[in-house]
Amino acid sequence: MRYRSLRSFPACLFLTFEGGFDLDETAVGTRVVHTERFRFFAPWRWVMEPFLREWLARDVREEMGRLKTLIEAEHLARPAQRAFPRNDAKPAP
Questions:
Q1: Cα–Cα distance between 68 and 46 in angstroms, integer?
Q2: Which phi and psi (to 5°) does residue 41 adopt?
Q3: How many whole angstroms separate alpha carbon 84 and alpha carbon 1?
Q4: pLDDT in tens, 68-82
Q5: How far is the C-alpha of 72 from the C-alpha of 89, rounded, in Å?
Q6: For residue 4, which of 18, 14, 15 has the smallest C-alpha distance?
């Protein structure tokens, strides 16, 4: 899943944003790779990037913890189904 910011005013004067999730099933569970990319235009870049770098690192760690809890709860509730079915999988009836 990928997403990005819309080019709208006033955000288009300051930054662009894109992100996404990659989910891979492994032998021991689901591997989640989450990306968020902010690109600030000068002069905002020099102020915002150092601040957001630290904040995002902390926020993403916390978000991954929340997602892990949700995925594990879903798996325990329905162990016969995957939390994230593959694209070729048929939905459950």
A1: 34
A2: -85, 150
A3: 12
A4: 888 788 777 775 555
A5: 20
A6: 18
CB-CB contact of 5 with 18 (8 Å):
yes
19-73: pLDDT as tens digits? 998 888 888 888 888 888 888 888 888 888 888 888 888 887 898 888 888 878 8
The Cα 69–Cα 12 span in angstroms is: 35
CB 25 within 8 A of CB 82: yes
Apex 53 CA angle, 20 and 84, nearest 5: 25
Strand residues in the chain grouped as ranges (E): 2-4, 15-26, 29-40
Residue with tokens 């902010």: 38
